[in-house]
Design a protein that fits this description.
The protein is α/β, with parallel strands linked by helices. 33% of the residues lie in helices and 22% in strands. It is elongated and about 70 Å long.
Length: 309
């Protein structure tokens, strides 16, 4: 076995030592950190957890002064495991590659960090460990001058439209007023007033009911071209930054959320309230509907007969 091939399968610490561009740097490492995670693109990986192993090496700048045995002066192991935990809590992911990129980026925003090796492996998906390994340096952050963890996300105005509101002659006027607002707008809807197919199974029925909401979202999209149906957080972020009115198709975000809603799609107003909190919305406006429970954001209610917001 050649030295190059051997290094490819060595622990990241060995690779870091062998490929250091400017001579040896100090390194900290976390080995065989195993976490139960729900992750994966296959249907069999949804709704269940699997063991995922993390091996991380961080090359750091040596401190100019003596550390004086003070943990607050170094990049500690806890910062590495916290980076892993923080990204796992952010959202459910399909790809190990995405998770590795996000962990590496979070680590490299630490002032001492120079370069990091991140290896992530699934332990339960085959006869051996299946995974990815990436290498990233602070140079890779030069196109991202602001930490992605700063609070720069917009706070949208979330609006729930009842079925009566969707078919109301006031819809275009409401959209005109919403379009003129300073903050971005995301619309939510419930199911159409037709019976949804019944599966007789809780998990599959949840999916059917979420799809029924998405069908109604497309109905709203057909009523006005300004209402663009979107399903992912990436699409929502782009829409919010570009002044597009979005109609939320809930399946992906609901199913991928680490701390998902305690309510089901059979209570679409409560689901919209959860979504407003999930998106850190400025407020939630209910047109032709009411909320029976609590919400994390301020709630306003408008009667269907009103023409102004």
């Amino acid at each position: 076995m050649s030295n190059e091939v051997r290094l490819a399968f060595e622990h990241p610490k060995s690779r870091a030592k062998a490929t250091s561009p400017d001579g040896p740097l100090d390194r900290i490492s976390v080995r065989d950190h195993v976490v139960e995670v729900e992750i994966g693109a296959f249907q069999a990986e949804r709704g269940t957890t699997q063991r995922v192993s993390f091996n991380v090496v961080v090359e750091v700048r040596p401190l100019a002064d003596d550390v004086e045995d003070d943990v607050d002066r170094i990049l500690s192991y806890d910062r590495v495991t916290e980076a892993i935990a923080a990204e796992l809590a952010e959202e459910r992911l399909n790809l190990l590659e995405t998770l590795a990129e996000r962990i590496a980026e979070r680590i490299l925003w630490e002032p001492q960090a120079v370069r990091t090796f991140v290896r992530i492996e699934k332990l339960d998906r085959g006869p051996g460990a299946l995974g990815v390994e990436i290498v990233r340096s602070v140079d890779d952050l030069k196109t991202k001058p602001v930490s992605p963890h700063a609070d720069t996300a917009p706070h949208p105005h979330v609006v729930f439209l009842s079925n009566e509101a969707i078919t109301s002659p006031n819809l275009a006027r409401w959209l005109d007023q919403l379009e003129a607002r300073a903050e971005p707008v995301i619309l939510c809807v419930g199911r159409a007033e037709v019976p949804a197919p019944q599966t007789g199974h809780r998990m599959t029925q949840r999916r059917v009911d979420l799809l029924a909401i998405e069908q109604n979202a497309w109905v709203l999209g057909g009523r006005d071209d300004r209402c663009v149906v979107v399903a992912t957080r990436t699409e929502l972020d782009w829409a919010m930054k570009n002044g597009q009115i979005s109609v939320w198709a809930p399946s992906k975000i609901v199913l991928d959320a680490v701390d998902g809603p305690t309510v089901g799609p059979d209570d679409p107003v409560a689901l919209a309230a959860w979504f407003a909190g999930h998106m850190e919305a400025s407020d939630l406006l209910l047109i032709g509907a009411s909320l029976s429970g609590d919400a994390e954001v301020p709630v306003q209610v408008q009667d269907i007969a009103q023409s102004g917001l």
